[in-house]
Design goal:
Blueprint: E1 10-15, E2 21-27, E3 30-35, E4 40-45, E5 50-56, E6 61-68, E7 71-77, E8 83-89, E9 94-100, E10 108-111, E11 116-120, E12 125-129, E13 135-140, E14 144-151, E15 154-160, E16 168-174, E17 181-188, E18 192-197, E19 201-206, E20 211-216
Antiparallel strand pairs: 1-20, 2-3, 3-4, 4-5, 6-7, 7-8, 8-9, 10-11, 11-12, 12-13, 14-15, 15-16, 16-17, 18-19, 19-20
Length: 219
């Protein structure tokens, strides 16, 4: 863990409903988690930790996800590693429309109420997408994003400095200006993947321990 940053303040931990959780999204008091091994997504009541809904991802493995109104957008990988974005209607099922990720790559996705944003870890960048998946803007990131959510117009990210590093950090990126501003906020003492925000606290997952973790938003 990075010794120059204060660690995050954990609020709670709970077991993941599926093995090897990868992505997470928040919808008020509900959270949504994807499982890398079961190829399913799960809707959970965050207070009780109970599953109220689950669905099989058609022919793919879920990675990152975000809430867009009454739907989820889920980054998925097929057996060849090609990445797409699929739409899941809450309370129903996955729809047939599929957007291919630019260059077939991308892991985590965020929504600001207007646009979708897709992170590409190895390229250290975030892509702003239109509804058809065309790239409108490329935002460079000083580190590798491994989770992403938009809060108050800013990107909050879990990051790694390099692919083989275990130095996970929480960072904030304000890309609303001509010159984006990037600040590291806290150290994360586990391999966090995915990031959600429920209005007061952040949520992430640790794949190796099959655990969902909530932590306080730093001041």
């Amino acid at each position: 863990m990075n010794q120059t940053l204060s660690p995050i303040e954990e609020v709670l931990r709970m077991p993941s409903p599926g093995p090897a959780p990868m992505g997470i999204a928040c919808d008020g008091t509900d959270i949504w988690v994807g499982s890398y091994e079961s190829d399913r997504i799960y809707g959970m009541n965050a207070q009780q930790g109970t599953v109220f809904e689950e669905a099989q991802v058609p022919g793919a493995t879920p990675f990152g996800m975000c809430v867009t109104g009454d739907a989820l957008r889920v980054v998925c990988s097929d057996d060849e590693g090609d990445r797409t974005i699929r739409r899941y209607i809450m309370g129903k099922d996955f729809k047939s429309d599929v957007i291919r990720c630019p260059d077939g790559t991308g892991s985590f996705i965020a929504y600001d109420g207007d646009r979708l944003y897709l992170s590409q870890r190895d390229n250290k960048r975030i892509l702003e997408l239109d509804e058809a998946g065309a790239v409108l803007r490329t935002i460079d990131v000083p580190a590798m994003p491994t989770g992403m959510v938009v809060v108050g117009g800013r990107f909050y990210l879990t990051t790694l400095p390099s692919k083989d590093s275990t130095d996970v950090r929480l960072a904030c990126l304000d890309a609303r200006k001509d010159q984006p501003e990037y600040h590291e906020l806290a150290a994360i003492p586990f391999a966090a993947r995915g990031l959600g925000f429920d209005g007061t606290k952040f949520w992430t997952v640790e794949r190796e321990s099959n655990t969902i973790i909530a932590f306080a938003k730093p001041d």
